[in-house]
Design a protein that fits this description.
It comes from Actinocorallia herbida. The structure is a single chain. By secondary structure, the chain is α/β, with parallel strands linked by helices. The chain has helices at 19-23, 44-48, 75-83, and strands at residues 5-6, 27-31, 35-37, 61-65, 68-73, 88-95. It is built from three helices and six strands, in the order E-H-E-E-H-E-E-H-E. Strands 1-3-5-4-6-2 form a six-stranded mixed sheet. A hairpin with a 2-residue loop joins strand 4 and strand 5 (68-73).
């Protein structure tokens, strides 16, 4: 099992963070098996693109809410880490 669960949407309240706000959060390691995704589907093109992080943040965005970690942005990065048999990835974690 790669993730703790596969979700469909964000169960937590809106946090109001913009790209600049996320950039201020230092990355830390998060175990893949502790993450619940907020998207059920992934565009395979995003996963396989060589420049998939060129225009976005290099680190996935995770929201920690009610004791659970939700992968809000960066599903393709997390899956790529899993395909490389990594059990952790560096992500920006916002405690809500």
């Amino acid at each position: 099992m790669i993730f703790k669960a596969v979700g469909d949407g964000r169960p937590y309240p809106d946090h109001g963070l913009q790209a600049r706000d996320w950039a201020k959060i230092p990355p830390r390691q998060v175990r893949l098996d502790e993450l619940t995704t907020t998207k059920r589907e992934l565009d395979l093109h995003s996963l396989l693109a060589k420049d998939s992080t060129f225009y976005g943040d290099l680190f996935p965005h995770v929201v920690h809410w009610n004791g659970d970690f939700y992968l809000e942005d960066g599903l393709h990065r997390a899956l790529r880490a899993a395909l490389h048999q990594r059990t952790v990835l560096h992500a920006r974690v916002f405690d809500l």
